Amino acid sequence: MEGMENREDLKSMLPMLPFLPLLLGSSNLFWPSQVVKSLETLSKGPLYSKVDSGELLFNAISHIRDSLALPSLQPVAPFAHGGYALFFDELISRAEASKWFEEVVPALANLLLRLPSLLESHYQDADYLFNGVRTGLRLLGSQEAGIVFLGQELVAALLTCAFFCLFPVSDRGSKRLPTINFDHLFEDIYESYSKKQENKIKCIMHYFERICSSMPEGFVSFERKVLPLEQLPLCVSYPEADFWSKSVVSLCPFEVHSSGFIEDQSNGALEVDFANKYLGGGALRSGCLQEEIRFMINPELIAGMLFLPCMEDNEAIEIVGAERFSNYTGYASSFCFSGDHVDKRNVDGFRRCKTRIVAIDALCRAGMRQYKCTYLLREANKAFCGFLDQSNCDHHKSLFQDGGSQGSQCMETDKDTNVVVKDFPMDEAPSTSVEIAMNRGEYINQVIGYSDKKGSWCLDLEDKIGIATGNWGCGAFGGDPELKTMIQWLAASQAARPSVSYYALGIKSLQNLNQVSQWILSHEWTVGDLWNMLVEYSSRRFNKETNLGFFAWLLPTLFAHDAKMSNLTSTP
């Protein structure tokens, strides 16, 4: 058997080992023998394992955890056992429970038995799939731009580990990693029952039912995007306020939707996750807002919580390929699982579902400080980091018009560098900076090393991927909807996105958003024009020189007319 000294693929996963429940021998990954025995028993079904209730399932989970004997495996949440028993023994029907224990639990046990081989195969292939670009499972730490590609079967096995609460957690806090095991998800339903928590769990259990009946065979990618704080060659650095003020980039088309949801858009747009700086936010606890709901209906997103530490101000996370499995109704306390969803989106050249999601965390507890230029800049740069697509070089030309000094130059053309470029249909243009390197026929590290220099690549390819967004940071985080709307618009425009589709969802202060955006477009404003107007308004708002919203301050005549018409129609 090949020794560890010759297994470069396994050496590459050593930094990840403290965060996985497996053991590493001289030449392979493995479960302890007692764990294998327990999983094999579960895999044979309830007639053999006697596991036919939530209470007995939790006992089996506890036995497996004890058999791991990992020093970093801390106790589960105190009332998790009550949550597993409550959900499987009382909240779902006996028919559903029977299916779970007879079909799903045995299939999940078999999936866990395959985890060591799935991971070994992953590491054998990961760094050789795309011309040497590193894509293997690893911690993508702060300021570490990079990408991880996971097969959907491996994602399913990792989520099964989370359901069985097998991930070690003692080192996660020091690495600023979010919650990953499901014990708090179940504890919360027992400690403080709510309908929305029950339905969150139903979404995830439905995902497990689906993958156990038919395992998907595609991939999901998780990219940490970084705007470097220092000037680096061949990448766009973190802009200063002067960059925005002097921008001559035209604002892109802006479409307002008064109904519908971001996840239902059908134009292939990059969909914004109104994220917590810890990816997933309260998804695995009691949270049930926009981000948490997205993680419930697209549970493969949860896998990113395993290895992506919290985001800094100059970072975003882009996830491509997470399949949707559930439909739902409601929001927050009214959230309700409403059945199966068959994701009919096409698959790209990397075998990923064409669902592109970018997580950007807004300023928390915004209050009046959101009107200070420092925080305007923070929000604009955060959105810009998320929206920036290095596959299109045209925006680089715009960035440096008028002598702009921020950022850097575009890579030379293919003709000048003699780099072979893979041809793509227009609707399959690569959407992330790392993909660009993957698409080149030569190993791009000859030009610049991604992991070493945090570089990025761009090709002069036409890209039709717009932005689908909404009221980012305007709920629990306390952001000003009018301000946040404009910030996202100028960031998307600067990032050379062809359009913004905005889902306003009935916020009263945005009722005139379409009129305002069309007025701005009709006057051919640039990004710099809008930025400078936002700065002036915010200064006045911060200094209490106005208490008007941005729209009414910008277009008082329009709003005075609307107020007059409103008074006329309300007069008896």
UniProtKB/TrEMBL annotation:
Biological process (GO) annotations held by this record are: ATP generation from poly-ADP-D-ribose; carbohydrate metabolic process; nucleotide-sugar metabolic process; regulation of DNA repair
TM region positions = none
EC number(s) per UniProt?
3.2.1.143
Catalytic residues as annotated in Swiss-Prot or TrEMBL: D273, E291, E292
Q: Which residues form the PARG catalytic Macro domain?
A: 242-511
The positions annotated for binding substrate are N276, Q290, Y331
Domain named PARG helical: residues:
93-224
Source domain of life: Eukaryota
Q: Mention one GO molecular function.
A: poly(ADP-ribose) glycohydrolase activity
Q: Name the enzyme's class.
A: hydrolase
**InterPro entries, sorted:** PARG_cat_C (IPR046372), PARG_helical (IPR048362), Poly_GlycHdrlase (IPR007724)
* Any one annotated GO CC term: nucleus
Alphabetized UniProt keyword annotations: Hydrolase
- Family, similarity comment: Belongs to the poly(ADP-ribose) glycohydrolase family.
Protein name from the UniProt record: poly(ADP-ribose) glycohydrolase
The organism encoding this protein is Populus trichocarpa
Task: Supply the source organism's classification.
Answer: Eukaryota, Viridiplantae, Streptophyta, Embryophyta, Tracheophyta
